[in-house]
Amino acid sequence: MSDEHDARRMEKIVSLCKRRGFIFQSSEVYGGLNGAWDYGPLGVELKRNLKNYWWRVMVHERDDVVGMDGSILTHPEVLKASGHVEGFSDPMIDCRTCKAHLRFDQLTEKKGVKQCPNCGGKDLTEPRQFNLMFETHVGAAADESSIAYLRPETAQSIFVQFKNILEVSRKKLPFGIAQIGKAFRNEINPRNFTFRSREFEQMELEYFCRAEQGMELLDYWKEERLKFYENIGIARDKLHVRTVPDDERAFYSKGTYDIEYSFPFGCQELEGVAYRTDYDLSQHQRASGKSLEYFDEETKQRFVPHVVEPSAGVDRTVLALLCEAYAEDEAPDEKGKMETRIVLRLHPRMSPIKCAVFPLLKNKEPLVAKAKEVIDLLRPHMFVFYDESGAIGRRYRRQDEIGTPFGVTIDFETLGEKNASLRDTVTLRDRDSMKQERVAINDLLGTLTSRIR
Ligand SMILES: [Zn+2]
C-alpha cells in the first residue's frame, strides 16, 4: 500500500478516535500538552479490556505469577542502581535555523551531510545527552536531597520488591511478578499519535529463573506473547518478530526480541521480550547492601536469580487494536441503496460495548419495556448500551463505528403479535457479517457470554 494511502488511513483513525470519544488531546482547551493523551468514554473501556485480559492471561490463569502495584514516585537510589540516572538518555541536537530540538537518529542525510528534517538546515549543534526521566521534588525542601523521579518503567519497583514478594508468595523458581501501571519518559519528539508519548502505561512481567533456563524461557515468552496478540484480534501476519542484534542490545542482555506491528506509519515495536540475566537484582543487591538471593531448599544453593522480561505498551497496543480494526465496507442504507460503512472489527473481547439493545420503536411502550428487561438481564455480565433514537439502520451504524459486536432488536415478533411461537425472541445482529438470527431471550445471555469471553 502507498504511503499516501497509509497516511490517509491514519488520519481517518485519529479523526474517529476524537469524533467517537476514544482518545482526546490532553488539556485540549488550552492548546494541548504535547506527548500526553486523555482516553474518553469508549477509549477507557477499550484500554481496560486490554489490561484486564492481560492480567487474566498473565496472572489469574497461571500458578507461577503474582501481581503487584508499585508507586510512581521513585527513590533516586533505585534509578541510580538501575543505571537510569547515568545512562537513560537520548543524544539530542538543535537546529540553529528553525530552533527545532531533534533526536540525533531523526536527522536526515544528504550526500553524507546531516540535515534538519524540518527545514533542511545544516547548522546543527553538537549532540548532547538528554536524560529522559522526569525529576521532581518530594516534600517542602526543593534541594538535592529531595529529588525523586517519576518512574521511567514499572520494572524497577518489581526488582526492589523481589524479596518481599518472594517471602509472602512462597513461590519457587521459575516464577514471575506482573505489574500494569504508568511510566514517564520526557521524549524529545513525541509523535505518531499516541505511539510515542511522555506519559504512558506498561504491562510488564519479570519472570525469575535459574541462569541455565534463561534462553529457553526467552523463546517461551516470545511465543506466549505472540499468542496473546492473536487472541486480542491482531493478525499474525501483521506482527513481526525482530531479533535485536548484539550491538543494539543492552550490554547485560543475552537476547532480546522486539514484537512489532505494521502500523500505517510503519513497523514499530509493541513489546520487548528481553533476557536481562541477573543484572537488575545484582545491581540492587550491591547498591542497597541487602541480599536479594534465592535459596534453593533442594540443592542448598544460594544465588541471584536471572530474569526474562516481556514488557508491553498499553497505549501502543490500544493504537494497534484500533488500526487493525478500522475498516470501510459497503452496507445498504434505509432505502436499500449501498453506502460506505465505517466499522471497527474489534475482537468482541476488546470491544468497549459488548451489546447494544434497541426497541424497534421508541413510542411503543411494550417494546420499550421489553428492551429494558433485556438490558437488566445483560447488565450484570457485560457493558451494554441502550439506544431508542433514530431509524434502526442508523442505530446499527453508530454501533458498527465503535466496534460493538452485537445488536439486539426488540420488535413486534418479540411481543408475539404475528406469530406466538416467536414470543420472547429477539433479533441478534452480528456486526461483521451483518447477519441476523432469532434468539430466545432465555438463551441470550449464554449466547453472548460465550462469544465475548
Ligand atoms: Zn531546522
Which percent range fits the helix content?
Answer: 25-40%
Beginning-to-end CA distance, first to last residue: 34 Å
- Overall pLDDT: 95
Please count the helical segments: 12
Which secondary-structure class do the elements indicate? alpha+beta
Uncertain ranges: none
Secondary-structure blueprint:
Layout: H1 3-19, E1 23-25, E2 37-39, H2 41-60, E3 65-67, E4 73-74, H3 76-81, H4 84-87, E5 89-94, E6 101-103, E7 108-110, E8 113-115, E9 128-131, E10 135-137, E11 147-150, H5 155-160, H6 162-169, E12 175-184, E13 199-209, H7 214-231, E14 239-243, E15 255-263, E16 266-275, H8 279-288, E17 294-296, E18 301-303, E19 306-313, H9 314-325, E20 326-332, E21 338-344, E22 355-359, H10 365-378, E23 384-386, H11 392-400, E24 406-410, E25 425-430, E26 436-440, H12 441-452
Parallel strand pairs: 3-12, 22-23, 22-24
Antiparallel strand pairs: 1-2, 4-11, 5-6, 5-9, 7-8, 10-11, 12-13, 13-19, 14-15, 15-16, 16-19, 17-18, 20-21, 24-25, 25-26
Helix pairs in contact: 2-9
The structure holds zinc ion.
Zinc ion binds next to loops.
In words, what does this structure look like?
This protein is α+β, with helices and mostly antiparallel strands and 453 residues long. The chain has helices at residues 3-19, 41-60, 76-81, 84-87, 155-160, 162-169, 214-231, 279-288, 314-325, 365-378, 392-400, 441-452, and strands at 23-25, 37-39, 65-67, 73-74, 89-94, 101-103, 108-110, 113-115, 128-131, 135-137, 147-150, 175-184, 199-209, 239-243, 255-263, 266-275, 294-296, 301-303, 306-313, 326-332, 338-344, 355-359, 384-386, 406-410, 425-430, 436-440. It has 3 domains: 3-82 and 139-321, BirA Bifunctional Protein, domain 2 (2-Layer Sandwich); 89-131, no CATH class; 353-452, Anticodon-binding domain (Rossmann fold). The strands form 8 sheets. A 7-stranded mixed beta sheet has the order 3-12-13-19-16-15-14, with helices on both faces. Strands 23-22-24-25-26 form a 5-stranded mixed beta sheet, with helices on both faces. α2 (41-60) packs across α9. The two termini are 34 Å apart. Zinc ion (ZN) binds at residues 95, 97-98, 100, 116, 118-119, 121.
